[in-house]
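SUBJECT: A protein chain and its fold
Encoding: whole-number codes for local backbone shapes
Chain under study, with its fold:
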Amino acid sequence: MTSNSVFSSVEEAPTIEAAALFDKCKNDPFPHKVNLTLGVFRNYEGEAVKIPVVKKMEIQMANDDSLNKDYLPIIGRECFCNAGIRLLLGSEHPAYLSKTAGGVQTIGGSGAVFLAARFLNRFLGYKTAYISKPSWPSHKGIFSSEGYTVKEYRYWDSVNQSLDIHGLLLDLKNAEKNSVVVLHACAHNPTGMDLTEEQWL
């Protein structure tokens, strides 16, 4: 039987590695397992764990009559965007003080990567992006779909089980001019290994 759907010619996307690992762990009969494949901590029953401070804030927000479910401004909540700029640059940075730095609120990390990729390609003409090796799988796909050549910089040294800071710095030093470099500010995905404050400087 043939399908008359307008979507019948759409090919199924390949399985995302993290999702496949999630299913493999879920189907593993071993009773004392903890599934850490999708970046969400779950208990032994497979339920997402609600962190106490998050639960407390949800209750506080539910009881705050100044919060509503109205549409946000097109760039997001201004106080949230400003807090992000302060966190990134510092409250004494000239670009923050002169209000020449801007920010937008996005739908998660991959949404932010997508918007940045499109903006930098469309308005600045950037065509090369560097992502860490390894990186979150969606990042390569996002940049590729926006017409970038995607390259990798060294990040994780699997032999020594540590950050390859020398390889990282060398690769970025030799990166093509006007390239986009994706750096995970914290909780590097998928290694969990972050740069120290000294390494950032």
Summary: The beta strands are 128-133, 149-154, 156-157, 162-163, 180-181. The chain has a mean pLDDT of 90. The two ends are 62 Å apart (CA to CA). The first helix runs from residue 17 to 27.
